[in-house]
Amino acid sequence: MLDYALLSALAAVIRTGGFDRAAQQLGLTPSAVSQRIKLLEERLGTVLVVRGQPCRATESGLRLCQHVETVALLEEDLQDALPAAGLANPQVPLRIAVNADSLATWLVPALAAVPERLFDLVLDDQEHSADWLRRGEVLGAVTGYGRAVQGCDSTPWVRCATSPPPARSSWRVGFPAA
Asked: Nearest 5°: phi and psi at 45?
């Protein structure tokens, strides 16, 4: 069984790019975050983080980050469906690769229409944002790619410029399957 406190530390290090920022986000010391990563690596018998500026995930580390983020999104849905269950309901940022033109024009108002959702935006050219999806580093992308990336669905985002984005329960449509 995986220890989700350790996995949360891993995801925070990868998402923020460093131990200090991950510690600040988690309300821990950098030493405590480092110890959690070390313990997780020892338990799994593999290196999960390439230490550097910024810290990056190994292939195994990236897969675990995807897993913990997917579980957190599933728990959010479960909390919505079973509010009496009393599950912790921290907001899980939805990581999306976007291009500067979309960000400067229509994307911010579209995302603001979903106030209950936090977004973690990765800025890149629309011709490269699909690569972020292929690598599994984001859960969605605004892309110039004409068809769905393998393992994903494609939704025409153009309509978001004039109407609000789909309801939260359908945000996962168009994103990689877990």
From this structure: 70, 30
CA distance 162 to 148: 22
Q: What burial class does residue 14 get, using C-beta atoms within 10 Å of its C-beta: 0-12 exposed, 13-18 middle, 19+ buried?
A: buried
Could you give the CA distance from residue 128 to residue 167 in angstroms, rounded to a whole number?
26
Question: Alpha-carbon torsion 49, 55, 58, 61, what sign?
Answer: positive
Nearest to 18 by CA among 46, 56, 48, 47: 56
Neighbours of 23 (CB within 10 A): 21
User: What pLDDT digit, counting tens, does each position of 78-118 carry?
Assistant: 877 777 766 665 667 788 888 888 888 888 888 888 887 78
The whole model's pTM is what? 0.64
Three-state SS for the chain is: CCCHHHHHHHHHHHHHCCHHHHHHHHCCCHHHHHHHHHHHHHHHCCCCEECCCCCEECHHHHHHHHHHHHHHHHHHHHHHHCHHHCCCCCCCCEEEEECHHHHHHHHHHHHHCCCCCCEEEEECCCCCHHHHHHCCCCCEECCCCCCCCCCCCCCCHHHHHCCCCCCHHHCCCCCCCC
